[in-house]
Write a structure and sequence with these properties.
Helix content is about 30%, strand content about 25%. The chain contains ten helices and 13 strands.
Length: about 325
C-alpha cells in the first residue's frame, strides 16, 4: 500500500468553550481527490487550516508529506498550495501581476503563462481583479494555489456563491489539476460537487468524522433497499411479486407498481414479468444517495445550519496566501 500523503490522527481544536474539531482522524492517499463534506460550521475549515499549518491543534498528530505542520511550516508551504474560503486580492492588481508576485515567493515556481493557459485565463491576463467574474476569480485563486508547483492542493469551498455554469467550469479545473498529479483535499457542503469530483469522502458533523468512504459506499450505507417503479404492459396476477424472496413490499396505484426490496430484487422482478410476457414500462430504479447517507449519519441535511453553532473562529483572510500581496 502507498504511504498516505496526509495523516491526521485524533485531532482536536477548541476556541474557548466551543469545540470546533473533536477527535478527527483521516488519511489521504497520493493522487486522489479527497472530500471533506459537511454543513457550515461542522469544523471542515478548521481541520484543513491545521493541516495546512495555519492553525495549531490542541491535541492530535498531523503529518503532511511526512512533515509536521507545527515544526516544518516553511518546508511545508513550499509543497502545499492553499485556496482558502475567504480570499481576496487588491482590486487593481491584474491577473498577470498576481501570478508573477506569487511566483516570486517560491524557489522553483510554475510558469505563470502555462498556468494562465491551463486555467483558461490567458485572455484575462491584463484584467484587474475587480473586473473578473466570480468563476474567473475562483480560477485565479486555484492558479495562485498551484504557482508553487505543490504536491498537495487544499481547496476550501471552491464554488460557493458561483452560478451553476461557473461551478461546472470550476469542477473541470479541479479535474485538470488532479490530472497534473496533484493530490487534492476538497472542502465542500455541496453533495453534487462531492459526488462529481471526489474519490473518497469524509463526512464531518459537529467536529467529528462520522463516516469515510467512496460516494457509492456512503450512499449504500444509507439504505440497502432498492425501489423499483414501473407500469406493467398487462395486469399482474395477485401475489406474483409479493411472493418473490427479495421483495419486501409491493404497492399498486393508478396503473403503476412500486416494488421495494434488496439484493437481486430488480433481476427477480424482471424475470417474473418476462415469464408472463409482461413488459415494465417507464421503469425507474432508485437507490440510496449521498444526501440520504448524510441525513442518515448526521440527522439533518447538509444545508441545515440550525442544529449546531457555527465555527466563527476561522482564520483571518490576512493569513491566506491569497492575501499576502
Amino acid at each position: 500500500m502507498p504511504t498516505p500523503v496526509i495523516e491526521v490522527d485524533h485531532l482536536r481544536k477548541a476556541y474557548g468553550g466551543t469545540v470546533a474539531v473533536d477527535d478527527v482522524s483521516l488519511h489521504v492517499m497520493p493522487g486522489e481527490i479527497f472530500g471533506i463534506l459537511g454543513r457550515n460550521g461542522a469544523g471542515k475549515t478548521t481541520t484543513v487550516e491545521i493541516v495546512g499549518g495555519l492553525r495549531t491543534p490542541d491535541a492530535g498528530e498531523v503529518r503532511v508529506l511526512g512533515l509536521d505542520p507545527r515544526h516544518d511550516a516553511r518546508r511545508l508551504h513550499e509543497r502545499v498550495g492553499l485556496q482558502l474560503q475567504e480570499s481576496e486580492l487588491p482590486g487593481r492588481l491584474t491577473v498577470r501581476e498576481a501570478l508573477d508576485l506569487y511566483a516570486s515567493f517560491y524557489a522553483d515556481p510554475a510558469d505563470p503563462a502555462t498556468l494562465l493557459a491551463d486555467l483558461g485565463l490567458t485572455d484575462r491576463a491584463d484584467t484587474q481583479y475587480q473586473k473578473l467574474s466570480g468563476g474567473q476569480k475562483q480560477r485565479l485563486s486555484v492558479a495562485l494555489a498551484l504557482v508553487g508547483n505543490p504536491e498537495v492542493a487544499i481547496l476550501d469551498e471552491l464554488t460557493t456563491g458561483l452560478d451553476p455554469h461557473a461551478r461546472r467550469e470550476t469542477w473541470s479545473v479541479v479535474e485538470a489539476v488532479r490530472a497534473r498529479g496533484v493530490t487534492i483535499v476538497l472542502v465542500t457542503h455541496l453533495m453534487e460537487e462531492a459526488e462529481r469530483l471526489c474519490d473518497r469522502i469524509a463526512i464531518v458533523d459537529a467536529g467529528r468524522v462520522v463516516a469515510t468512504g467512496t460516494p457509492a459506499e456512503l450512499a449504500a450505507r444509507a439504505s440497502a433497499e432498492q425501489v423499483l417503479r414501473f407500469r406493467p404492459s398487462a395486469p399482474l396476477p395477485d401475489g406474483l411479486l409479493d411472493g418473490l424472496p427479495t421483495v419486501t413490499s409491493v404497492t399498486a396505484a393508478d396503473g403503476a407498481v412500486e416494488v421495494r426490496g434488496a439484493d437481486d430484487v430488480v433481476q427477480d422482478v424482471l424475470v417474473a414479468l418476462h415469464g408472463l410476457g409482461v413488459r415494465a414500462r417507464a421503469l425507474r430504479l432508485e437507490q440510496g444517495s449521498l444526501e440520504d447517507a448524510f441525513v442518515s449519519l448526521t440527522g439533518r441535511s447538509s444545508t441545515d445550519d440550525t442544529a449546531a453553532p457555527l465555527d466563527t473562529s476561522r482564520t483571518s483572510s490576512r493569513t491566506s496566501k491569497s492575501r499576502r500581496a
